Amino acid sequence: MKVEVKLLSEKGRAVPRAMHRNRRRYTGAFSLQEMRNSELGRSCFVANLHCDLEGAPEPLLPPLLDATVIHAEAGRLRVRGFEMLDGLQLGQTWEVKVLPC
């Protein structure tokens, strides 16, 4: 599914709502699936955003682990979880806007 993602946290902390409009947006292919994670030693739901060009499976963002859809309405999703950066678990929320194909 082609989407536009805006990150609502930075280094594990929520970005003030007044700054949301100026946040960078990432466009790519969104997926959410259950996967085994070796760092956690268990299965969890993982959200990914990859470049949507064929033959380019490179991630645009770090995977969102323990991902949970907390809101879905009118072509928009809010997905919450955490990123693993340098061995640290940092909370993250993605604001996802579904784009036309």
Summarize the entry for a quick read.
By secondary structure, the protein is an all-beta fold. The protein has no helices and eight strands.
Write up this protein.
The protein is built from no helices and eight strands. The chain has 101 residues and is an all-beta fold. The chain has one domain (2-98). The strands form two sheets. A six-stranded antiparallel β-barrel has the order 1-4-5-6-7-8. Strands 2-3 form a two-stranded antiparallel ribbon.
Which class of secondary structure composition applies to the elements?
A: mainly beta
Oligomer: single chain
What count of structural domains? Answer: 1
Q: How large is the count of helical segments? A: 0
Unreliable stretches (pLDDT < 50, length at least 5) are: none
Could you report the average pLDDT, rounded to the nearest whole number?
Answer: 92
- Radius of gyration, taken over Cα atoms and rounded to an integer in Å: 13 Å
Annotation, overall tally of beta strands: 8
Residue fraction in strands: over 45%
The dominant shape is globular
Q: How far apart lie the N and C ends?
A: 8 Å
List its traits.
single chain, 101 residues, mainly beta, two-stranded antiparallel sheet, 8 strands
Topology:
Blueprint: E1 2-7, E2 9-10, E3 13-14, E4 25-37, E5 42-50, E6 64-73, E7 76-85, E8 88-98
Antiparallel strand pairs: 1-4, 1-8, 2-3, 4-5, 5-6, 6-7, 7-8
